[in-house]
Specification:
Elements: H1 12-22, E1 26-28, E2 35-37, H2 39-58, E3 62-63, E4 69-71, H3 72-75, H4 79-85, E5 90-95, E6 98-106, H5 111-121, E7 130-139, E8 153-163, H6 166-187, E9 193-196, E10 208-215, E11 221-231, H7 233-238, E12 241-243, E13 249-251, E14 253-260, H8 262-271, E15 288-292, H9 300-312, E16 317-319, H10 326-335, E17 340-344, H11 346-351, E18 353-358, E19 364-368, H12 372-397, E20 399-401, H13 405-414, E21 418-423, H14 427-437, E22 440-445, E23 464-469
This protein binds one RNA strand through α1, β11, β14, α10 and α11.
RNA sequence: CGGGGUGUGGCUCAGUUUGGCUAGAGUGCUUGGUUCGGGACCAAGAGGUCGCCUGUUCGAAUCAGGUCACCCCGACCA
């Protein structure tokens, strides 16, 4: 047990803050609401980036880079979009001492830039589809901020695609949602609910928004990624037209989809425990750490070094040769969520063994040195899938069904989590539920269940089962 | 943006109520030594314009006004 980290039960918010600081994921900067991603935190993002990018490339997407500034007139081209984002954009009004004739906003998202560009480069059905993605940072002037979960500037990727027709755009929207779901579940070991957002929760300017939703340890939900179908709304606003095979002018149908550094907050809050971080091996900056014990003794350090070199061929491995106590090191790497720790000291070397310790369950295993590389791989896989199962169980344990407003409210107050309940589809009921319970509709899941035929709030005819929760 | 809280060596905090000598402790850091299988020990040392600004006062970490930042709860949002 690490003393410096507040226990989850005692104060979840403080636990979270302790973790991000003490494990050196971030530091605060002198700019309000902006965080410094330290090497350990940034390495997680780089791993996420690498894995996710592979998936994008595999499905035919190309990376581009757009400017970070958007002229005011361009931002204003699509009405709903600007209304959605205007309250939280940062404006550049001066270049040096000179006032700009048109102010520029720092991109809060890049739909408008992509649209303008697409209008210029798409002319024929032969130019379609356009499957672009960009990795960048965006700025949203949030009122309150929290590391990873909400910062003024954050890193993300935003995919923007243009298609010949509505069906293809819808297919792309769902394919990318599925990509995110697979990424969360396989790479991050985070189970997600796939579904559609209600109109109230929809992206500004979208025809339909889909999301993958995950559940944190404290029973609050976190939108882990979104995928939007824009229909031809943006195309009409920006004049993105092409000539089809029949020589007729058509508007393109577009999508956009994104995942941000916020997902690191989910990794922390889904897998972490009172000893600190627990990182899924696929994105852990350090997969195994070799800790020499009694390293001043003859032969220990050199054996530990050669073990490290062997492991490093296959896994992200470090050796800690600092003169700290072994016990200190054990705690340190536990706190940092390193999946596997390997202790090697005189006793082990004599027997031709080492001690392998799993972060996920604390199990200590004596392993023959000549088998250790292979076993490490197997155990990393076990941890990867074990974390998923554990998280899934947690989510299932915290998923409830409510049949009436009173029990709905009671569940959210006493045992926070996902609440499944029927909804008539009326935004007023949705707003009223939020007002009385603080919970929002997280999504209308693809996997529907017929819990009842009455809306949880008004008792009218129910149309959909919805996942509700308090959310980050 | 509303409500609450906090700013004092790197970190955690005491001191502020009731203004008063050279601002303390633990931990961390540096050096030397002894240790080393779950956060070691001894010794010596370095490190602070008390968030910032203005005021009150003979005198401000302490009082007043302002301001900035962070944390928590809410509203808004990825």
């Amino acid at each position: 047990m690490v003393e410096e980290i507040t226990s989850m039960r005692e104060d979840f918010a403080q636990w979270y803050t302790d973790i991000v600081k003490k494990t050196e994921l971030i530091d605060y900067s002198s700019v309000r609401g902006c965080m410094i991603l330290r090497p350990y935190g940034y390495a997680i993002w780089e791993n996420i980036q690498r894995e996710l990018n592979k998936m994008f490339v595999a499905s035919g997407h190309e990376n581009v880079y757009m400017p970070m500034f958007i002229p005011e007139s361009l931002l204003r081209k699509e009405k709903e979009h600007v209304e959605g984002f205007a309250p939280e954009v940062a404006w550049v009004t001066h270049g040096g001492d000179e006032e700009l004739t048109e102010k520029l906003c720092v991109r809060p998202t890049s739909e408008t830039l992509f649209c303008e560009h697409y209008a210029n480069i798409i002319h024929s059905y032969r130019d379609l589809p356009k499957l672009y993605n960009q990795w960048c940072s965006v700025v949203r002037w949030e009122k309150t901020t929290r590391p990873f979960l909400r910062t003024l500037e954050f890193l993300w990727q935003e995919g923007h695609t243009a298609h010949a027709d509505a069906d293809e755009a819808q297919e792309e929207t769902l394919r990318m949602l599925d990509t995110y779901a697979g990424f969360c579940e396989k790479v991050l070991s985070i189970p997600v609910i796939r579904g559609r957002k209600s109109d109230k929760e929809k992206f500004a300017g979208a025809k339909a928004t889909y999301s993958v939703e995950s559940l944190m340890h404290d029973g609050k939900a976190l939108q882990s990624a979104t995928s939007h179908n824009f229909g031809d709304g943006f195309a009409r606003a920006f004049g993105i037209q092409y000539t089809d095979k029949e020589n007729k002018l058509q508007y393109v149908h577009q999508t956009s989809w994104g995942m941000s550094t916020r997902i690191i907050g989910a990794i922390i809050m889904v897998h972490g425990d009172d000893s600190g971080l627990v990182l899924p091996p696929a994105v852990a900056p350090i997969q195994t750490v070799v800790i020499p014990v009694s390293m001043h003794k003859e032969g220990v350090l050199s054996r530990a070094e050669s073990l490290k070199a062997e492991l490093a061929e296959k896994y992200r491995t470090v050796i800690d040769k600092s003169d700290k106590q072994p016990g200190w090191k054990f705690s340190e790497y536990e706190m940092k969520g390193v999946p596997i720790r390997i202790e090697i000291g005189p006793r082990d070397i004599e027997k031709g063994e080492a001690v392998l310790v799993r972060r996920d369950n604390g199990e200590k295993i004596q392993i023959k040195l000549d088998e250790i590389s292979e076993k490490t791989g197997l155990i990393l896989n076990e941890i990867q899938s074990g974390l998923y199962k554990k998280a899934l169980k947690l989510r299932e344990d915290k998923t409830y069904i409510a049949a009436d407003p009173e029990s709905f409210k009671k569940i959210l107050e006493e045992t926070p989590g996902f609440v499944k309940a029927m909804w008539c589809g009326n935004p007023e009921c949705e707003a009223a539920i939020k007002e009385s319970t603080g919970a929002t509709s997280r999504c209308i899941p693809f996997e529907q269940e017929e819990l009842s035929d009455k809306c949880i709030y008004c008792g009218g005819r129910a149309r959909k089962m919805v996942y509700w929760a308090k959310a980050y």
